[in-house]
Structure formats: structure tokens, C-alpha cells
Specification:
The protein has about 55 residues and is mainly α. It has one domain (about 1-50). About 70% of the residues lie in helices and about 10% in strands. It contains two helices and two strands, in the order E-E-H-H. The protein has a two-stranded antiparallel sheet. It is rod-shaped and about 60 Å long. The termini are far apart. About 0% of the residues are buried.
Length: about 55
């Protein structure tokens, strides 16, 4: 269920709700691609450190 700008309630399907959720997250984290790369770099560094232990 979604509230429209004019105050009307509208039932939404799961696909539409999922799409809106992804759009919201995309707006909140526009640099997600960069963040993902940073996470991958950190994981790679930790793996190298673990090899040396």
C-alpha cells in the first residue's frame, strides 16, 4: 500500500514495491559502486595480511 501525493491510498504489487525500494536506496547511496570497490579493496588487504600470519 502506498500513499500518493494527493492523499489517496493505492495498492502496489511486489514488483513495484521492490523497484521503489531500490530507487530509494539508490538515492540514499549514490556512490554505492565506489563503496563496493572500497569494500573489495579492504577484503583483499585483509586476505594478504592473513597469508602473512
Amino acid at each position: 500500500m502506498a500513499m500518493q501525493e494527493d492523499g489517496m491510498l493505492r495498492l502496489a504489487g511486489t514488483g513495484e514495491a521492490a523497484r521503489k525500494g531500490r530507487d530509494l536506496l539508490r538515492e540514499l547511496a549514490p556512490n554505492a559502486t565506489m563503496d563496493r570497490q572500497l569494500a573489495e579493496d579492504l577484503i583483499a588487504e585483509r586476505r594478504i595480511e592473513a597469508e602473512h600470519e
